[in-house]
């Protein structure tokens, strides 16, 4: 059998379009495209998503770091939610970070408020009872974003 001659490979000129560069409508796993939201903004960062959930917490209710993480599909990221809440005072629109407590209702983030008593004071203004840095009747004031609507 005769051997087939392969055609010589021609390198495309700089700036020219090759088949590799033509969009196919499919995204590869290494795509660098960012999702654009209807607002025109690029994909939200994790912290921005945390702030969006926290802004939904109703007046007079609290939620936990873990509940926010679970709502965002990252159940094991409760500590990252805490980091986000730590910087929430610098964000606009405002984020009610005082409504986010630990999984048993302790005001574990109070030391990030200036003065530390501010978290408790804000919760009490909303009618939430706090005693010894613990939200009283925690189950009845707990807001679960997965169940109650985010």
The SSE string, one letter per element, is HEHHEHEEH
Low-confidence stretches: 16-31
Name the CATH class of the domain at 46-141.
Mainly Alpha
Tell the overall outline: globular
Residues in helix, %? 25-40%
CATH-assigned homologous superfamily of the domain at 46-141: Winged helix-like DNA-binding domain superfamily/Winged helix DNA-binding domain
Strand order of the biggest β-sheet: 1-2
Report the strand count: 4
Return Rg in Å.
25 Å
Query: Helical element count?
Result: 5
CATH architecture term of the domain at 46-141: Orthogonal Bundle
Main sheet overview? 2 strands, parallel
**What is the name of the CATH topology of the domain at 46-141?**
Arc Repressor Mutant, subunit A
How far is the N terminus from the C terminus?
69 Å
SS-derived structural category: mainly alpha
Bin the strand percentage: 5-15%
What's the average pLDDT? 82
Provide a descriptive summary of the structure in words:
The chain has 150 residues and is mostly helical. The protein contains five helices and four strands. Strands 1-2 form a two-stranded parallel ribbon. It has a two-stranded antiparallel sheet with strand order 3-4. A hairpin with a 2-residue loop joins strand 3 and strand 4 (134-135). Residues 16-31 have low confidence and may be disordered.
Helix-strand blueprint:
Blueprint: H1 46-55, E1 63-64, H2 65-71, H3 78-86, E2 100-101, H4 118-125, E3 130-131, E4 134-135, H5 138-141
Parallel strand pairs: 1-2
Antiparallel strand pairs: 3-4
């Amino acid at each position: 059998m005769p051997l087939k001659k392969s055609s010589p490979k021609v390198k495309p000129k700089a700036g020219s379009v090759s088949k590799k560069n033509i969009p196919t409508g499919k995204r590869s796993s290494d795509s660098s495209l960012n999702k654009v939201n209807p607002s025109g903004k690029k994909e939200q960062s994790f912290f921005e998503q945390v702030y969006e959930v926290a802004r939904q917490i109703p007046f007079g209710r609290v939620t936990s770091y873990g509940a926010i993480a679970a709502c965002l599909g990252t159940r094991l990221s409760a500590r990252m939610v805490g980091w986000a809440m730590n910087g929430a005072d610098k964000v606009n629109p405002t984020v009610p970070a005082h409504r986010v407590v630990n999984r048993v209702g302790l005001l574990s983030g109070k030391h990030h408020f200036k003065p530390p008593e501010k978290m408790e004071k804000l919760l009490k203004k909303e009618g939430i009872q706090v005693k010894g840095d613990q939200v009283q009747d925690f189950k009845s004031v707990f807001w679960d974003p997965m169940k109650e609507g985010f």
